[in-house]
Amino acid sequence: MSERLRYLFHQYFNKTETPAERDELMRLINEPGSEALVHGLMEEVYKSHQFEEDPFPAGSREKMLEAALANDTLSYADTDIIPIKKRLTPLIYAAAALLILALSFGVYQYRAQKSGEDLAADKIHQDVKPGGNKAILTLANGTKIELNGAEKGKLVQQGNTAVVKLANGSLAYVPGSSAAGAPVINTMSTPRGGQYNLQLPDGTVVMLNAESSISYPTAFTGKSRNVTITGEAYFEVAKNKKMPFIVSFGDQKVEVLGTHFDIRTYQEQPYKTTLLEGSVKISTGNEKQLLVPGQQAVYNANAKKFDVKTVDTEDIVAWKNGLFLFDNTDLDDVMLELARWYNVEVIYKGPKPTLNFTGEVKKSNNLSRAFKILESTGGVKFTINGNTVTVEKK
């Protein structure tokens, strides 16, 4: 068993395992006498990387594994989160947080799946499926096209530009060879539980997160390329030094020549602009700020200035890669993310738990699976009833 378990363990650690291999790994971990070998594999991988400091409290790695193997709710000594003392590189994050979190949660989920427990026993009355590729395209004349239900191919002609639904499901604007009327404004909007990809007339690629919108011309003319957004959008802007690309949101603007960046403008949270590559200039009123890759600008309304910090950009754009990635994220923000994606209403029963979460959850999970992962950290429980989620302290 030892060599097979070692192979499956490294497959899982490197995220190259098949579903069948993942199930086999969880089965082997649960077999009597596997604890020592699993501990050894954890230490082997952990020590193979040069950690500057242990990101977990003393003894907590053993407690987490033992809790997982014992099928108990995971507990983390005197805290309700898995504390990361300093931001880790993606590789070390995988070696530490994913090694413990994913492995422990994997065992927890595997056993929950195999035990055949009734969801009602977990106070879940009804499950909720994840969101998907959904959006509405509103043309200049007010006509609305539901994109997820539209056929592939040309949808409509807007002046000199053909609006096409591509084979991969995204929407593209394909300019014609000659002028045919002035550009008009189109708007793409995603509902709660939706996201969508868009290719603008200049080749710029945009991905809209749930409950977001972007308004843009069907052809870019003049001295700049101007679009307006709400919610959250990730941009890969086509380079054009003669025509800056300008994104407006609220009273802020981001100006670029060609770069990759993410803008989050949900009303419930501070506006954030994060740069992945290239450079951007963000402004509001007389306040201006230049960003370099890896920086995030958060507008401080009280101080009327931008607070700039270095962030892990992979965390910021995890949403477009199919993940919720929480890094010491408080419960309110976690529930806002989940509510948008699963299109549910969240209510709190009794005192609101003051918890933070660290770890990742696949956006392809049903809501009950996401909640099982969150509940396994201790201190909170969730009840799903139709499209309403009740959150209460455990």
From TrEMBL:
Residues 324-391 form the Protein FecR C-terminal domain. It comes from the Bacteria. This is FecR family protein. Pfam families: FecR (PF04773), FecR_C (PF16344). The chain crosses the membrane at residues 91-110. It comes from Mucilaginibacter angelicae. Residues 187-281 form the FecR protein domain. Keywords: Membrane, Transmembrane, Transmembrane helix. The keyword Transmembrane applies.
